[in-house]
């Protein structure tokens, strides 16, 4: 005869299963995207935490050897630090030093080791200055000194 109450309940049940499946599919997709994003961010943060260095000069006595001021950079991070003019930039008093005016004694330094940064004396005048070294992952160290 007519459509029974049981038939209506079956239709509602099937519809609710379809809707629940669609919602769970959306949740799975969002969770997967979030997980991928967190993994990528975690790797970048770990790289930044592993990259750390310190300028270890005496601020009142900067060595001048063969027309170059010498600054000493120590790797205090947890991984090898590449030290080239393409991976590390220098700023004196907020002005960038051209890559032709400084060099490193090593192309990379292991954890706990020190490298020398040679900066041409014509780049830095006498007086009080601030040296900022910016390395990979935008990790930086600042150092106040007097020439």
Structure explained in plain terms:
This protein has one helix spanning 5-50; strands at 53-55, 64-65, 68-75, 81-82, 89-92, 95-96, 102-104, 108-109, 114-120, 128-134, 140-146. The protein has 147 residues and is an alpha+beta fold. Strands 1, 2, 3, 7 and 9 form a 5-stranded antiparallel β-sheet that branches. The protein has a 4-stranded antiparallel β-sheet with strand order 6-5-10-11, with no helix packed on it. Strand 2 and strand 3 form a beta hairpin. The longest helix is centred in the N-terminal third of the chain and has 46 residues, at 5-50. The chain is rod-shaped and about 100 Å long. The mean pLDDT is 89.
Q: What is the domain tally?
A: 2
User: What name does the CATH topology of the largest domain carry?
Assistant: Immunoglobulin-like
As a percent range, the share of strand residues is 25-35%
What gap, in angstroms, lies between the N and C termini? Answer: 104 Å
Oligomer: single chain
Instruction: State the shape.
Output: rod-shaped
- The chain-level structural class is alpha+beta
CATH architecture of the largest domain: Sandwich
Instruction: Report the sheet with the most strands, covering strand number, pairing sense and barrel closure.
Output: 5 strands, antiparallel
Number of helices: 1
Low-confidence stretches: none
Number of strands: 11
Helix content: 25-40%
Taking Cα atoms only, what radius of gyration do you get, to the nearest Å?
Answer: 30 Å
CATH C-level of the largest domain: Mainly Beta
* Average residue pLDDT: 89
Order of helices and strands: HEEEEEEEEEEE
